Amino acid sequence: MDNQHHHRFTQSERDRTRWVSGAGRYVTDIAAPGALTAVFLRSPHAHAEITRLDAAEASAMPGVVRIITGADCTAAGFGNFRALMRYGMNGPRPMVVPLRPVLAIDRVRYAGEAVACIIATGQAQALDAAEAVIVDYNPLPAVTWFGTDTATPPIYHEAPGNLALLHQAGDAPMVQAELASATHVVSTSVDLPRIAPVTMEPGGAIARYDAARETYHLITPHQGINEFRPDLAAVLNVPETRIMVDLPDVGGGFGARSPAYPEHAALLLAAKLTGAAIRWVPTRSETFLADCHGRSTRLTGKLGLDPDGRFTALEIAYATDLGAYVTTVGALVNVHNPLQSASGTYAIPALSVLFSQYFSNASPVGPYRGAGRPDIALLIERLVDLAATKLSADPLELRARNIIPANAFPYRTAAGSTYDNADYATLLNTAREVAAWQNSSSRRREAAQRNRLFGRGVALFAEIAGAGASANDQALVCLQVSEGRVHAVMETVSGGSGQSQAETYAFVLAPLLGLDPADIVLNASPAHSNLTGSGSIGSRSTQNAGSAIADAGAKIRAMLLAQAGLRANAPPEDLLIDAGRINRADGSLVMTIVQAVQAEGGSLSVVGSTPSSVSFPSGCHIAEIEIDRDTGTATLTRYIAVDDSGTILNPAVAEAQIHGGIVQGVGEVFSEAMRYDETGQPLTGSFMDYAMPRAADVPSFITLDRPTPSPNNPLGVKGLGEAGTTGALAAVTNAVANALAQIGAELPALPCTAERLWQAMQSGSGQK
User: Do 612 and 673 touch, CB atoms closer than 8 A?
Assistant: First the structure.
């Protein structure tokens, strides 16, 4: 029997137990009796013409059932993958969006592009057949970086110089005039290398086709059916209603699981042509090539200041290497997201941002945790630190002088976005106090005694959260009486990607209906869902799907109170719901929640809805690092994160999200990068080459909340899933620069590996 001493576990607590005990239900754990195995043959060249593809011998090998090629996709009437973009090319032509086939036909444009899909009775047979497929290539010059001139051979004839997009935002003439008259101007550039998402689970899929119903069925990890299913429908040339996508446990998303991939379409075609279920389990090395990459941006900026050290103008050039194709939102997030927070937390009257995007012979770029926001925050915070150095000012004091005051919200920036609510001064002052900023000289001296350089860095940032393609979010809430208890099922298209939204959503619904959170479960992104919403992307789940759940809960609450009002002969507004009871104001019982639901027929189902909204979470992060002068090894010794994520509904999950984001930002600063040689061959294909941050690489974090509730949604929340990465990338980079500046050394290119830091120290001018 339940009592106050017996804790009943929520769905998320049960899920976490499953995951850490190896009892998760990932796609590779799902039984598919009689399933055939798929293996993809991938291009070894970054850029080449396909002059011959002969699969006859391979098709006759033992165990081989079918080999799917690009010609089969064309014969099946398959189309190409779509790209969402709302920003046009300034000038005489629109943005160049080349067609991306399911399987390459005449040309391959990056190493790892899928050329054929081999279907066999087992993995070994499929791999043997893949080696027997004859593909003759005529290698072509490869473009391995962006921003090339018009003399560079174009990857697409319609994109001279490989330029895909050029978009000017802000007031460029005003900015140029302000910079020309500024008392001080600082400038810098930052290159953010390509990042592989390296989700803990490599992914994979199980594909089926129902010939009688002419429907496709896919089981695969994803971040929201309403972002994923339209991609497939556009390629398969069928209505979305004929595609079902089931969501298993997801071992990491980070943006890489939001789009559908060519492999998914090929698997569905294979299922249709063979009449069998098809299972695909990619290798880890395969995911380094097949999953969309992140970042790969180059930002340059100029910041103007007046005689009092106030910011007058900011000019930014933001260039993105798209890779070989435009993914669904890869181009969009590298314009929309950084533009919304292009002036950071500062009151800057004049702003100009020139966005350019280029093609290269590398894996396509898509969203990766932060998706443009860490990039812009890094540039802004580097410029502010450089300005502080030029003015001999304390970096925190200069920031405090230029922040948007708390009484100015809602605040419309020069970029045209409207910040909802914030108190940047409180964030800054809290971080300053906790970090003992004024007393860091003793830590610097102590590090020097150990032949180490001490560095401290700060990032004061704001970012957009909640953006998505859907105009509104819906949630279905169903109540059912069973075994003397009321059980609730929530259904949304957001929340099944591993971030414990089930628990957070339950915390939203439970107090509205007087339920125990343990009696509330989430059915996330069901295959047949027709609910609106944009999924678990862009730090939007709680503020949008959570608000829709609150709306559904409020509607059900009103129905239950109405039932109780009839029994009590009292206005519903005079009654209270608490802990499974509906009471009068004096605490006397009118009826239980079980009785109220039974009075409604034993079950209730209500759809809640809310207009999709954005918010602008912010934070002040301070990092301290040490660099060994003998080896170049950098150590993160201290990290303080003070964040404003609006109303915090689930503190434990919020803290976990901040922690995870910080670690990913630290990885970008010190170790993570996809590297290519001059021919476009990836040099990073496994964890032997791609260095992930480990638990021993980071200290215990100090994380604090200083919330200002957002007025843009009924819960007052702000998305926090990407704040840790946005803050860490800038704060830790600034700390490295601060350490190197002591000996006159320049900040090397990211990632700041031990080798690069050692080389930077050798070029320094000496102790300053």
Answer: no
